[in-house]
Amino acid sequence: MHITIIGSGYVGLVSGACLADFGHTVTCVDKHVAKIEQLQAGGIPIFEPGLHDLVARNVAAGRLSFTAELKPAVAVSEVVFIAVGTPARRGDGHADLSYVEAAAREIAAALDGYTVVVTKSTVPVGTGDDVERVLREVSPDADFSVVSNPEFLREGAAIHDFKHPDRIVVGVEDQRGRAVMEEVYRPLHLNRGPLLFTGRRTAELIKYAANAFLATKITFINEMADLCEAVGADVQDVARGIGLDKRIGDKFLHAGPGYGGSCFPKDTLALTRTAREADRPAHIVETVVAVNDARKAAMADKVVRLAGGVEGKRVAVLGLTFKPNTDDMRDAPSLVIVPRLQARGAIIHAYDPEGMQEAAILLPDVVFHDDPYTAIDGADVLVILTEWDAFRALDLSRVKVLLRAPVVVDLRNIYEPTRMASLGFRFEGVGRGT
Fold first, then answer.
1. Are residues 183 and 238 both part of a single domain?
2. What is the reported pLDDT for 93?
3. What average pLDDT does the segment 4-24 reach?
4. Which one of 179, 186, 297, 427 is CB 3.0 to 4.6 Å from 420, fit for a cystine?
């Protein structure tokens, strides 16, 4: 099949490369000419494990190409995916659908023959109806179906998630559109990829509900971590004890500094706004949003407390991205924690394997280093903010020598308190005691 992907960010680029790897002919379109030129030259504008090789292989095979010209790509395609950004709108937190609407208008003007237009972007309930309306306004005689096909890709594991999905949700209102989507995902269906066909609005809500539920699990275990610290329990054992219950499961039960990233913050906020407009307030999700916002500030206060104040002190921060195996800084806890420490007088020295280029724009007055040990050298306290594998096996004897004071705040619980204490560190994790 000929497929066009509008938007070459995390979702669009990964989806396009994977669909090409299935044997489809895929064109990725993006308005940012510099990004397209980088892709055409063999570069990758994002960090995602395995993506460079996947893209290169399919470009070489002639199945994957990149262009800034939307019209010719859409005209020859049987399926067009909209995978543009839907950031939180300023002022009210709703998803900003301006990019989706603009893409729909351009697609409408380029349609030639029956085409399935698929919303891959994360959008509020009813967006598919709006896309259909825009298409019809621009091209009243066009022959098309509008489908919702939300993505469920984890940054850092996106290729695996696309090729080995828990589910493929397709919201469709007609049989022609359904038949085309079955063909798009036929390679996965042959491997028993679970295709779930629903109505369009149901598919749109599934995406928001899934992210809100996962964000709730994270926030719940973070509150249990606070309780563990107060009563002398261990949150990791609590998480394992409840996670072994198959009704609960062990995923997203890792206590830390709060969720961030490109999805959970904006999607939980958008869902609460949608629920309010429908006069069915999502009180649990609203609380999750508030608790998570407060948690990041509380983690900075934890560092200040353990360090005995940070005024004029050097604080080493390892990890800046919202999670490992990505360069994504969107809504990362570091964007709250680092400025809050700076406001208390801390001098921040930081290292992140992939995120420092973006962090340098977002976090002024931070001293960045080329490796973790130079960041640690001379620091009064070490803070672990992201659980990169490179930080799991630090030479702790060397760390202790480099630190001016042996104080470590592990906000990802990658080290054992008893071991750190035996090595002479003043150590605190999250929900694990001191």
1. no
2. 73
3. 97
4. 427
Instruction: Output the pTM of the full model.
Output: 0.92
Q: CA 26 to CA 65: how far, in whole Å?
A: 7
Strands (E), 173-306: 195-198
Instruction: Establish if 216 belongs to a structural domain.
Output: no
Active site residue 28: no
Spell out the residues 6+ positions from residue 380 whose beta carbon is closer than 8 angstroms to its own.
307, 310, 313, 314, 315, 403, 404, 405, 407
Q: Is residue 101 part of a domain?
A: yes
Tens digits of per-residue pLDDT, 206-223? Answer: 999 999 999 999 999 999
- Domain coverage including residue 123: 2-198
Residue 182 has pLDDT above 70, yes or no: yes
Residues 32 and 138 in one domain: yes
Active-site annotation holder among 18, 28, 228, 263: 263
Instruction: Give me the DSSP letters along 333-385.
Output: THHHHHHHHHHTT-EEEEE-TTTHHHHHHHSTTPEE-SSHHHHHTT-SEEEE-
Structure-token pair, residue 179: 């038949």
Alpha carbon distance 225, 412 (integer Å): 12
| CATH classification of the domain holding 362 | 3.40.50.720
